Amino acid sequence: MTDRNTSDLLIQVAMRAEALPIIHLLSLKPIGRMDPNLPSELWQGIVHGHRISLVTNGCDPEFDCDRIGTESAAIVAFLALRITRPKLIFNAGTCGGFTSQGATIGDIYMPTRFLFHDQRVALPKFDAFAKGEKTTADFPKIRSATNAKHGTCSTGSSLDTTVDEMAFFAAESVTCKDMEAAAIVRVARDFQTPFIALKAVTDLVDHRQVVQESFLTNLKFATSRLADAVDHAARVFSAV
Ligand code: ADE
Questions:
Q1: Whole-model pTM above 0.85?
Q2: 78 lines ligand 1 (CB under 6 A)
């Protein structure tokens, strides 16, 4: 693609329902697919004086739902970073929070430590690679503009949580559980592009309510909080 896609800021969002409030608030315009072989969709606009691109993972043509999870997160990050060459990438989305860590529904987190909780390889070096621990720079102006909480985000490709994963979260003091951030951090690192995760809490992992019920009940509220946070972050972006 051409230089017209070069952007100051790239926002990657897994689900269309998570992205639409941001697209509306920032008045982004649909551009279409980045690649004919991938359902990922691109929106663009000039917001607060910055060229902004937003990409979603797109709808799977066979299963008729958003392509959530780590494979799509990594593929879309690779392509979008290559095409838009941003100064900064945001991963905006929803997450599970933890009552034990003080979370409530709709809280915004901006974690700076990332892990995978469902990748285990008990071999030298591959064990650390599988866990994929990475830390990212903090951006205090964006944190204060979004009023985001600090923490550790752990990524896996399942919405629910196993007993072993619960123990992992406690041992690692995890504050956000999601399905893409650690995968995108890895790709952003390859592109030497600074990364920020903004995550809105839809459900509480250590609460007895069934996760899918809580997720669906709180999705609208959490994504509207997320859109406000992304807008506030984009406003102070030049000052980072
Ligand atoms: N996104 C929102 N809630 C989540 C959860 N509990 N696990 C993974 N991803 C999520």
A1: yes
A2: no
